[in-house]
Design goal:
The complex is a heterotetramer of chains A (503), B (316), C (316) and D (348). Chain A is α/β, with parallel strands linked by helices and 503 residues long. Chain A has three domains: 241 residues, Rossmann fold; 165 residues, Rossmann fold (3-Layer(aba) Sandwich); 61 residues, no CATH class. Chain A is 32% helix and 26% strand. In chain A, α4 packs across α5 and α14 packs parallel to α15. Chain A starts with a strand and ends with a helix. In chain B, the strands form two sheets. Chain B has a two-stranded antiparallel sheet with strand order 1-4. In chain B, strands 2-3 form a two-stranded antiparallel sheet. The relative contact order of chain B is 0.20. In chain C, the strands form two sheets. Chain C has a two-stranded antiparallel sheet. A two-stranded antiparallel ribbon of chain C has the order 2-3. Chain D has 348 residues and is an alpha/beta fold. Chain D is built from eleven helices and twelve strands. The longest helix of chain D has 19 residues. The chains are: A alpha/beta (503), B mainly alpha (316), C mainly alpha (316), D alpha/beta (348). Chains in contact: A-B, A-C, B-C, B-D, C-D. Chains C and D meet through α2, α5, α10 and α12 of C and α2, β7, α7, α8 and α9 of D.
Chain lengths: 503, 316, 316, 348
């Protein structure tokens, strides 16, 4: 098999961190290569090196046997390496066709004027490859998330037939927002594509990687720790390589899981959010962790955002300590005792222009001010306490938030709600995009919060996470509760049971 | 050099810019550095600074206030029209009118959800009508007695220091305290930096915006009073041609027009830069035909120097 | 033309509503001759908003409009048969003037992009420079146009409509083709929506930014030619008051100042609303001193109806 | 460090630019200066030229200051000039707004500088109360000349019909006076002439154009004449008429005597304008000021009619325009009051 893309001893260092440590990797023609690893294992650095966003410190990259270094994602694209990013790169105000050919309108130009008809029909061809049935002249803002993802893939596929060189398509977590049906479709497409291109498939869903790949690399702490043909691999085996040890109960701090709870804190009665959620009722006690499982669109995100005051309920009742509360605005939610940790940390979780201390006390203004004046002493003492307790790595309380790592930023967000004294913490993907060590710190912290009597609503990054951390799990499907599982320490429900209720 | 030191120096660039301009002018006309002249230049700058001071908060939010010129003219009319009848109460009334204009802007932006650019432009139009109504479409003179009794705080001189400068420094101090020591000030920066996160933290963002517009209106009103005192009259066009220079001095000082980054002392320095360039041209003897051209070029160069690009990712 | 949807119709609704209200007070409003007058008065603003819309769609702003129009009007007037210079280029003066506008636009863009100065300040400064040049070149006197053929550009009629309307229509068509059918137009939306993603997709962001300012300069230049033809002269103050009307029209039409959302067609409707408002003030006999207030109030009402605020997560 | 090197370059550029500005330092000579609204209109451009001519004749340094319509800027510039010259300066100033005059006079007194004011000053501020630094105030009778030009309009209309009137910025003193004169002239017709509407166009051509268009819709052929408070607005209105093919049939009058207006008068499209004499006000104002400052005359001994006086405003109509073009425009800098038309009168 001819090797199309190869990395030789690639090392990448950031100040203080070795993100990649002599990585060797090759991709053959017409091969599907799976790349797995935990968040923080170096996957995204690897992707950014391939895309030309980062430069290699040591080692080299070869494309079709020639040493290559791409200058930008566009440069990589023009050479035949197309990427579908986890964070979408679709411009919502442009049409589907315009997005697919963004930056490459040349072939549709007639005397400087874009021939929309030929562009749309060319787009139609690409859309057919991903079996997406939408008008190329449709604005992308009108499509749902999954459809936009398909447009993104169609954009990558459009290289096919337009280049003489080999084509490598890199799919970075393409399934994280797709439903099973769409995932199956995607795998079908990958099967068809194999005839024309090579594919790098990055995911943290081991079953999927196993299903679709020919060969798998496992990344851990910036190094390739394992390489195997899919035929010889198993989920548990891959997982062990990925986390570097046997999966044990220690990881999710199950020994610290509570079995007795305080008084009921939160009661939700027949909560309905039009088009998102129907008649959800649930009770939650102090110190209890309620996990929510479900695919995208199942209603669990809507439920979480509703508790955060960021989405209006259409009907139903929410009670705190037996008293009904209104959650029309985020400030009402905060005043009622909710603390919302959003999944979009960068845009909703932190204020990047403010300092660590300012972020920590953002929601607890009154406690740290007198007559509107900030009590800096009190603030500093409190913040230093939390920095120490949560082991937040920051030079000082005055450090700008943007210079902290993702994990430390997330700890600041969590401390923000503890400082306020929230009764109910709503954690929407609290470990998204943070490294392994920080993840464990966050798990530890969640347990501590439960010990303090905070009721916790958890939307996990993975199913395992939800199972490992929760006392009780609510499974949602199409906006309704489809099942409920108790998950006491030592008697956790099986992933497959949950999945069968999710889809 | 550590990041901290670099940041410290970046913060001082507007002052360096000012000093270069001052000494550049002094090199040609040493008389420029006479203490009395420097005092006069500073005093002449204060009305501009007062107008820009409150608007700085609005710009730090990422919004803009285009009504300040009309508000200043309006309060000059109100104070000039009311002083003979009401005495000192007229001052309070004028300031209240300025704040009320800010309240209107705040309400329109928050509840009608109209972008501040248009909202404040429109409110400015309304304030101009109020000014015409209050002044009966005339310039109104303020008698010397009234001026001495009620407006000396703005125009007099004590121990060689012009009162305008005192008022300006007082506003500088008060707004600096508000911006750096109060929760409101912190929230102004927060909203300008990342509004979504502030909302998600349960902060009443509308309230923050509202107060910023009120402060802006109040300060524009105060600027109108000081102008009326200095010129001895109120007129619906008293503050004409002040709007763009006022916003220019906010930006020249280094406050980002996109919000999140800025401070009052930067606006103070920005106002001085603008004034020094303008008056400096008269001093150095730049022909009046070239003055506008030189002014425009220096403005662009000054901003190119003073803007701290490390804090603004995309320059729009 | 895919951009026409219900949302784009809201400003049109406001426009008709306004017409009905004015017609109730003043039936003459609905006459054909007044419709032509309104279109004629809209001609220059329409040409101006074509450029301004692209700049605003990109998330930037162009404050040099008045400067460029004045400069180009002076260039035009000086190149056709006139009372000041010996030139007599006739219609050939038009490309010169329009290119002058484009050149100033290029300077705007280059200053903005290469010095990384926010467009607000870059264009403000360059605008001052243009006004300065226009003033200095003439020493304060207007250049009066003696070229009858040239003046036919706005004075003459074709198919019963003043030529200015045809020129404006042509400008709209050109702008529409650029917006919908060229890379430049599509990239403007891409940059205005998400500059980082656009850059990663290979959009030459810097070049597009400069080109858009060049485009705005060309349109402003054309407006300058038309202003010279309409008033039969060129001088530095010929465009005074045009800037805020232009931006108001763009925003009233429904284009967001934050970029990415809007269309040149929306801006045409915006201009019509603003012009009809001015025209209506006189027709309805609104007392002069409250006109600005009424206008401000109506703009708030119009924007609150016309603007699609669901698209605006936050109001800045 | 990339950002820093950029800033360093820019700082260097700014330093270079500031050192490139032309220097003007006159230690001993008295400086002569003109201060006015802007250089962008012909009236003021000629006013400045008048001052310059005089300065050349006495071989003294000369400067022009402009307010750009901003009173504070005007005052700051005058202060800067007085400060730079240590008060050894004569300024012929057209204040941006009438109250500014009082502040300017105060500044001049404090520094020993000499000023002559034009057009705008408070009614209760008089040169003789501020001896010797406030030399004189020169103006033109706004009400009187406006009345004359309105009568010219009424004549051109055949003595009856409706007129529309375009005013300047509502609160400006000349705008108020001119409007008053127009109203008095109309009142004198005993109802034969009616003011259909009055709208301010803020001295702006384009605004006048748009207002005129709206009037044509509202009043149509009922508009028999157009009165404008200055020529710019008159020309704007005239252009609106031209586009409707009505130029010449509906008479227009303006005030200022700009070249555009004079040509329109010659073409029969305007019924008249009032020509001031800015060469004279610019030159003679400075001459008088210089004479007082240098001690050539004892200004404090002059009678009131030599301290506050009107210049000559000539009403130019199609009948007398040829004659006007031929008139002798020269004057003698030493004959200060030759063109005065009497002491300034104050309206109630």
């Amino acid at each position: 098999m001819k090797t199309v893309l190869e990395l030789r001893n690639v090392t990448k260092e950031f100040p203080g961190v070795r993100a990649l440590d002599s990585v060797n990797l090759h991709v053959g023609r017409n091969e599907v290569v799976g790349l797995i690893g935990e968040n923080g294992a170096g996957k995204s650095t690897l992707v950014k090196i391939l895309a030309g966003i980062h430069r290699i410190n040591e080692g080299e990259m070869l494309f079709e046997g020639k040493p290559t270094s791409f200058r930008s994602p566009r440069d990589a694209f023009n050479h035949g390496l197309a990427m579908v990013f986890q964070e979408q790169s679709i411009i919502q105000t442009l049409t589907v066709a315009e997005n697919i050919f963004l930056g490459r309108e040349q072939e549709f130009l007639r005397f400087g004027i874009i021939d929309k008809r030929s562009m749309n029909s060319a787009a139609k061809v690409e859309l057919a490859k991903v079996h997406l049935n939408c008008e190329p002249s449709e604005k992308c803002s009108k499509l749902d998330f999954a459809a936009r993802q398909m447009v993104e893939i169609a954009k990558a596929l459009s290289l096919d037939g337009r280049l003489d060189s080999d084509i490598v398509i890199l799919l970075d977590e393409p399934t994280s927002v797709l439903e099973r049906r769409e995932i199956n479709l995607l795998f079908e497409i990958i099967g068809e594509l194999k005839a024309k291109a090579s594919i790098i498939f990055i995911s943290h869903r081991l079953d999927e990687v196993l299903e679709v790949s020919d060969r798998i690399y496992v990344l851990r702490d910036g190094a390739v720790v394992h390489e195997t043909a899919s035929a010889d691999a198993s989920i548990t085996g891959l997982h062990e390589h990925m986390v570097g040890r046997q999966l044990d109960h220690e990881y999710y701090r199950e020994n610290k899981q509570r079995s007795s709870f305080g008084d009921p804190v939160l009661s939700v009665r027949d909560l309905t959010i039009d088009g998102e959620l129907r008649n959800l009722s649930v009770d939650l006690a102090a110190g209890e962790i309620l996990g929510l499982a479900g695919v995208v669109g199942s209603g669990r995100e809507a439920f979480a955002r509703c508790l955060g005051g960021l989405m209006l309920p259409s009907s139903g009742e929410i009670l705190i300590d037996g008293k009904p509360v209104k959650l029309n605005q985020p400030n009402q939610a905060v005043d009622s005792g909710f603390g919302f940790v959003p999944s979009e940390r960068k845009s909703e979780g932190i204020v990047s222009g403010l300092s660590v201390a300012e972020n920590m006390t953002l929601a607890a203004g009154k406690r740290f001010s007198r007559f509107g004046f900030i009590r800096f002493d009190r603030e500093r003492t409190e913040c230093q306490h939390w920095i120490k307790r949560l082991q937040i790595r920051t030079p000082s309380v005055k450090t700008p938030m943007q210079s902290l790592s993702g994990g430390n930023q997330q700890k600041v967000v969590l401390s923000k709600w503890q400082i306020v004294g929230s009764k109910v913490a709503v954690l929407d993907h609290p470990t998204r995009g943070i490294d392994v060590g920080a993840k464990e710190d966050v798990y530890e912290l969640i347990r501590e919060m439960a010990d303090q009597g905070i009721a916790i609503v958890l939307l996990g990054d993975t199913l395992e996470e939800v199972i490992g951390l929760s006392n009780r799990i609510l499974v949602l499907r199409d906006g309704e509760v489809s099942a409920q599982f108790d998950a006491p320490a030592g008697a956790k429900p099986d992933q497959l049971d949950l999945i069968s209720n999710m889809v | 050099m550590t990041e901290k030191h670099k940041q410290f120096i970046r913060n001082l660039v507007p002052i360096f810019t000012l000093l270069i301009l001052v000494f550049g002018i002094a090199a040609y006309e040493p008389g420029f550095l006479r203490p009395r002249n420097l005092m006069t230049v500073t005093a002449d700058t204060m009305t501009l600074f007062l107008m820009a001071s409150g608007a700085t908060l609005v710009i730090m939010l990422g919004s803009i206030d285009l009504s300040i010129q009309a508000i200043a003219s309006m309060t000059s009319c109100i104070v000039a029209a009311m002083l003979p009848m009401f005495g000192g109460t007229a001052l309070l009334f004028a300031l209240a009118a300025g704040a009320a204009a800010g309240i209107l802007s705040g309400l329109v932006v928050n509840y009608l959800r109209i972008p501040s650019f248009v909202a404040t432009l429109a409110i400015g139009g309304i304030m101009t009508s109020v000014a015409f109504w209050a002044s009966n479409e005339r310039s109104i003179y303020i008698s010397d007695e009234d001026k001495l009794v009620w407006l000396n705080w703005a125009t007099g001189t004590t121990a060689g220091i012009d009162h305008e400068v005192v008022v300006g420094l007082a506003v500088l101090a008060v707004l600096s305290v508000i911006l750096s020591l109060t929760r409101f000030g912190r929230l102004v920066r927060a909203v300008g930096s990342q509004e979504r996160a502030v909302v998600a933290s349960g902060i009443n963002v509308n309230g923050v915006k509202f107060f910023a517009f009120v402060i802006s209106g109040f300060m524009a009103g105060l600027a109108g009073l000081v102008m009326a005192a200095r010129l001895g009259s109120g007129s619906p066009t008293l503050a004409s041609e002040f709007l763009l220079p006022a916003i220019a001095c906010i930006i020249v000082g280094g406050t980002a027009i996109t919000g999140g980054v800025g401070s009052i002392w930067k606006t103070f320095v920005g106002a001085l830069i603008i004034a020094v360039v303008r008056i400096g041209m008269t001093f150095v003897g730049v022909t009046v035909f070239a003055q506008q051209i030189v002014f425009g070029l220096v403005l662009v160069l000054a901003v190119a120097m003073t803007i701290d690009r490390t804090k603004v990712s995309v320059v729009k | 033309m895919a951009s026409i949807n219900l949302r784009a119709l809201a400003p049109i609704g406001v426009f008709f509503l306004l017409c009905i209200v004015i017609a109730i007070f003043s039936p003459n409003f609905l006459s054909v001759s007044n419709a032509i007058r309104i279109l004629n008065a809209s001609a220059i603003p329409v040409v101006l908003v074509m450029g301004a819309t692209f700049v605003i769609l990109m998330g930037s702003i162009d404050l040099s409009i008045e400067g460029i129009v004045a400069l180009c009007a002076v260039v035009t007037a000086s190149l056709v048969l006139n009372d000041t210079t010996a030139a007599n280029l006739g219609m050939w003066a038009i490309p010169f003037a329009v290119l002058t506008g484009g050149m100033v636009g290029a300077i705007n863009g280059a200053t903005h992009v290469y010095l990384r100065v926010p467009s607000f300040m870059a264009t403000l400064g360059i605008g001052f420079v243009c006004l300065g040049i226009a003033t200095a070149a003439l020493g304060g006197f207007p250049v009066r146009i003696a070229d009858r053929g040239f003046r036919a550009l706005t004075l003459g009629r074709t198919l019963g409509l003043p030529n200015g309307i045809w020129v404006a229509t042509a400008a709209v068509l050109v702008a529409l083709v650029i917006q919908e059918r060229t890379r430049l137009g599509r990239y403007v939306f891409a940059i205005g929506t998400d500059e980082v993603t656009a850059r990663q997709s290979g959009v030459p962001v810097e070049r597009i930014r400069i080109l858009v300012f060049v485009l705005a300069g060309l349109f402003s230049g054309m407006a300058g030619v038309m202003a010279a033809a309409q008033l039969g002269q060129g001088h530095a103050l010929i465009a005074s008051g045009r800037l805020f009307t232009t931006i108001t029209a763009v925003v009233v039409g429904g284009t967001a100042l934050s970029g990415g959302v809007g269309s040149v067609l929306n801006s045409v409707v915006g201009v019509l609303i603003v012009v009809v408002l001015t025209n209506g003030m006189v027709l309805m006999g609104v007392p002069p001193f409250v006109q600005q207030g009424v206008q401000g109030f109506l703009i708030i009402v119009a924007v609150s109806i016309a603007l699609d605020r669901r698209q605006l997560e936050f109001v800045k | 460090m990339g950002k820093f090197s950029r800033q360093t370059v820019l700082l260097a550029t700014a330093a270079a630019l500031s050192s490139g500005m032309g220097a003007a330092s006159f230690a001993d000579d008295m400086t002569l200066a003109i201060s006015m609204r802007s250089l962008s209109n012909p009236y003021h451009a000629t006013f400045a030229r008048g001052g310059e001519e005089f300065a050349k004749s006495v071989n003294l340094p000369f400067e022009v200051l402009v307010t750009e319509g901003n009173s504070e800027k005007g005052l700051a510039d005058i202060r800067a000039l007085i400060s730079r010259t240590n008060g050894n300066v004569c300024i012929n100033v057209d204040p941006n707004d009438s109250p500014d005059a009082a502040t300017i006079v105060d500044e001049a007194k404090a520094a020993g500088a000499y000023v002559v004011t034009q057009w705008n000053k408070p009614d209760d501020l008089h040169p003789w109360d501020n001896d010797p630094n406030y030399v004189a105030h020169m103006s033109f009778s706004g009400v009187g000349t406006s009345k004359e030009i309105t009568n010219a309009l009424i004549d051109a209309m055949g003595g009856e019909g409706g007129i529309v009137a375009i005013g300047g910025i509502l609160s400006n003193v000349p705008a108020i006076e001119r409007k008053l004169g127009m109203e008095q002239a109309v009142a004198d017709t005993d109802g034969k002439v009616e003011i259909l509407d009055f709208q301010p166009a803020d001295w702006n051509e384009t605004k006048a154009f748009e207002i005129m268009q709206a009037w044509l819709t509202r009043y149509g052929d009922d508009v028999k004449g157009v009165w404008a408070a200055n020529d710019s607005m008159g020309i704007g209105a005239l252009e609106a008429l031209r586009q409707e093919g009505k130029a010449g049939s509906v008479p227009v009058v303006g005030i200022d005597g700009t070249e555009a207006a004079l040509s329109a008068v010659e073409a029969g499209e305007m019924a008249g304008t009032v020509a001031w004499d800015p060469m004279w006000t610019g030159g003679m104002g400075l001459s008088l000021c210089h004479a007082a400052a240098s001690g050539a005359i004892d200004i404090t001994a002059e009678p009131h009619e030599h301290r506050e006086f009107y210049g000559t405003g000539i009403v130019v109509t199609p009948e007398n325009i040829a004659e006007f073009r031929e008139r002798d425009t020269s004057f003698d800098y030493g004959d200060y009051w030759a063109k005065s038309t009497g002491q300034i009168q104050y309206q109630q």
